[in-house]
């Protein structure tokens, strides 16, 4: 059963201006592009505009606009802490997740020595792989890659075989951005800690779909991107306090060192984006119920998970009957195994052609590798060809899915 009835979903969709876009066919556009970045509610747009109109200033001055900006930064950290379930002082913001991850890895790298080992996975976006490979080249480190099983879940036996007393980090994703696979995060973090390594988590493809809780996961570093959960383009990280306070960060000499997350923020932040981030968290909180932001977010993600599970079941039941494409990754909608991101292999190639044809009919999907190089290599698929990717978030509808499946079937018939 969906968590949102027809009236509630219509009201919710009315908060998103983009969802009113009409395709050339006369139908509303179907936004199945969520894995690449979600749409934003009007409140996020207004918050960004309002900041630029009424509060635009740099920080740490002695007049009202700069004081308001200081307060916005403090509120953003508080909201970031609530969003990930961790210490607000350990939140760092940056241009995007990839840039922020390079910065954090560079700081941590100063604590490593030649011969230390890093473990990454074949399930990950390259933003949590390539920075480690480059660091290894510079410092003489060893990087191991955890392989995948046939169903595109992580091979934990392979992970265990690659851990040792020399392992310093296990870097892994919470959810595949290409095929939706979830990872057993607590188990991976436990295995990392047993050999004295850090658990370094990419939550970008997870954050729109499931509640993040860094304490429950037991991770040491976690990164995500607000533009993947109804906010603006921005990167956010949480770093365990003792690490955030002691890593030798790249920073200019006069810059402050408190709160500890600020140590990894170079230059002036995009304050207007932070205003949009706060509005995005408020939007999510309003989906739930409770007396505190934390409890509201807990409740909201129960709604989101139930709604997306309903949509995922619809998608998976339908895609099995569409000729010319093959689903890769988990084939069940069970919430323990996947989020609503679906990777499709196109028979005979042509993922770009199909994505283009769908787009011309107002159905927005993605095609390519999505920087998930390890997944495509495991599947034996050329990076240039890649997959066709569709995804659902809680604002999607049954009509979006049914139209995608119908048009995909028609396009296959036209091509044959």
Automatic annotation (TrEMBL):
UniProt xrefs under InterPro entries = Aminotrans_V_dom (IPR000192), Cys_dSase-rel (IPR011340), PyrdxlP-dep_Trfase (IPR015424), PyrdxlP-dep_Trfase_major (IPR015421), PyrdxlP-dep_Trfase_small (IPR015422)
Which superkingdom does the taxonomy of this entry point to? Bacteria
Instruction: List the Pfam families hit by this protein, alphabetically.
Output: Aminotran_5 (PF00266)
Q: Where is the Aminotransferase class V domain?
A: 31-404
Q: What is this protein's name? A: Cysteine desulfurase family protein (TIGR01976 family)
């Amino acid at each position: 059963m969906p968590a949102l009835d027809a009236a509630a979903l219509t009201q919710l969709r009315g908060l998103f201006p983009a969802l009113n876009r009409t395709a050339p066919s006369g139908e509303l556009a179907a936004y199945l592009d969520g894995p690449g970045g979600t749409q934003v509610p009007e409140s996020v747009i207004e918050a960004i505009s309002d900041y630029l109109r009424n509060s635009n200033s740099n920080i740490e001055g002695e007049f009202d606009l700069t004081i308001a900006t200081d307060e916005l930064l403090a509120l953003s950290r508080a909201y970031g802490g609530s969003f990930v379930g961790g210490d607000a002082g350990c939140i760092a913001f940056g241009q995007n997740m990839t840039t922020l991850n390079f910065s954090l890895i560079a700081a941590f790298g100063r604590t490593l020595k030649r011969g230390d080992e890093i473990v990454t996975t074949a399930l990950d976006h390259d933003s949590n792989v390539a920075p480690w490979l480059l660091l290894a080249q510079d410092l003489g480190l060893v990087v191991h890659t955890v392989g995948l099983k046939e169903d595109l879940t992580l091979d934990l036996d392979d992970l265990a075989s690659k851990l040792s007393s020399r392992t310093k980090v296990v870097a892994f994703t919470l959810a595949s951005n290409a095929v939706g696979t979830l990872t057993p995060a607590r188990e991976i973090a436990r295995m990392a800690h047993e050999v004295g390594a850090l658990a370094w988590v990419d939550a970008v493809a997870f954050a729109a779909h499931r509640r993040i809780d860094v304490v429950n996961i037991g991770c040491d570093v976690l990164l995500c991107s607000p533009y993947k959960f109804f906010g603006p383009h921005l990167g956010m990280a949480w770093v365990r306090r003792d690490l955030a306070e002691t890593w030798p960060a790249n920073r200019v000499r006069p810059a402050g060192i408190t709160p500890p997350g600020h140590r990894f923020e170079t230059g002036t932040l995009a304050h207007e984006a932070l205003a949009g981030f706060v509005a995005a968290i408020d939007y999510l909180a309003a989906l739930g119920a409770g007396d505190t932001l934390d409890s509201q977010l807990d409740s909201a993600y129960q709604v989101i998970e139930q709604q997306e599970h309903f949509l995922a079941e619809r998608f998976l039941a339908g895609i099995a009957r569409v000729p010319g494409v093959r689903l890769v990754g988990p084939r069940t909608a069970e919430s323990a195994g996947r989020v609503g991101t679906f990777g499709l292999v196109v028979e005979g190639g042509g993922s770009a052609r199909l994505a283009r044809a769908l787009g011309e009919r107002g159905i927005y999907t993605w095609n390519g590798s999505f920087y998930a190089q390890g997944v495509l290599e495991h599947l034996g698929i050329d990076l240039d060809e890649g997959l066709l990717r569709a995804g659902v978030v809680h604002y999607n509808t049954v009509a979006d899915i049914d139209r995608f499946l119908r048009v995909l079937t028609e396009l296959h018939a036209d091509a044959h």
